[in-house]
Amino acid sequence: MAPELTSGEASTWRLIQRLSDLANGVVEHQIRSAADLSSAEFEVLRCLVAAPERQLRQNELAALLGWDKSRLSHQLTRMQHRELLDRRKSGRVHAVAVTRMGVQKFELADNAHVAAVRSLLREHLSTAEREALERTAAESAAEAPAPVRPITAAAPPRMLRARTT
Questions:
Q1: In whole angstroms, what is the distance from residue 24 CA to residue 20 CA?
Q2: Alpha carbon 109 to chain centroid distance?
Q3: What integer pLDDT is reported at residue 2 of this predicted model?
Q4: Which of 32, 54, 130, 144 could lock onto 125 through a cystine, CB 3.0 to 4.6 A?
Q5: How far is Cα 51 from Cα 5, in angstroms, rounded to an integer?
Q6: Is 158 a domain residue?
Q7: What is the pLDDT, as a whole number, of residue 142?
Q8: What is the pLDDT of residue 122?
Q9: Range of the domain at 122
Q10: How far apart are CA 23 and CA 116, in angstroms?
Q11: What is the tally of structural domains in the chain?
Q12: What is the rounded CA–CA span in Å between residue 45 and residue 76?
């Protein structure tokens, strides 16, 4: 049997989970309010907007997001119906490109995302606390084994990860 967490370890872990849930909820709410995008749509658009020529192969997008093909396909279908992206097939290659509307929605959402993250960091952490948290997170991530399903390898360091649906 594995050893149990101490009460201090368990309490710290619950607080970390709660803080993560709260921060993700705030950021997700701001993105939805600003641009009517889910966090999953925001992540897809983030990858496409950052890509060369604002398009990617579907398998590249799946790898960047750490999603399986089925989940991505369903998400892309919903987004295509909302005119946020276009999908094209050329032989065996499935390309995904962001539309003008998708770029506009992403820009609104990204501004809201940045403002929400900065607000959360400034309101609740001093510069020294933020730097300590960043060091701890970076060290933990560097020491951790590779996850079975990556969170999102393409997230810029300035972004606080929003939960995907």
A1: 6
A2: 12
A3: 78
A4: 130
A5: 43
A6: no
A7: 86
A8: 81
A9: 23-140
A10: 9
A11: 1
A12: 10
Q: Are strands 55-57 and 93-98 parallel, antiparallel or unpaired?
A: antiparallel
Give Cα separations from 57 to 76, 89, 102, 126 (angstroms): 12, 10, 17, 41
Tens digits of per-residue pLDDT, 50-64? 999 999 999 999 999
- Give a yes or no: residue 59 inside a domain: yes
Cα 75 versus chain centre, distance? 14
The whole-number pLDDT of residue 123 equals: 82
Query: How long is the chain?
Result: 165
At 87, which CATH number? 1.10.10.10
**108, 34 in Cβ contact below 8 A?**
yes
SS3 state of residue 88? strand
> Any idea which residue has 């990617």 for tokens?
56
| CA pair distance 44, 3, nearest whole angstrom | 40
Give the pLDDT confidence of 142-155 residue by residue, as tens digits: 887 765 444 444 44
Give yes or no for a contact between 85 and 76, defined as CB atoms under 8 angstroms apart.
yes
Q: Looking at the domain assignment, is residue 130 inside a domain?
A: yes
pTM of the model: 0.76
Asked if the structure places residue 3 within a domain, the reply is no
The per-residue pLDDT for 108 is 97
Tokens of 71: 């989940």
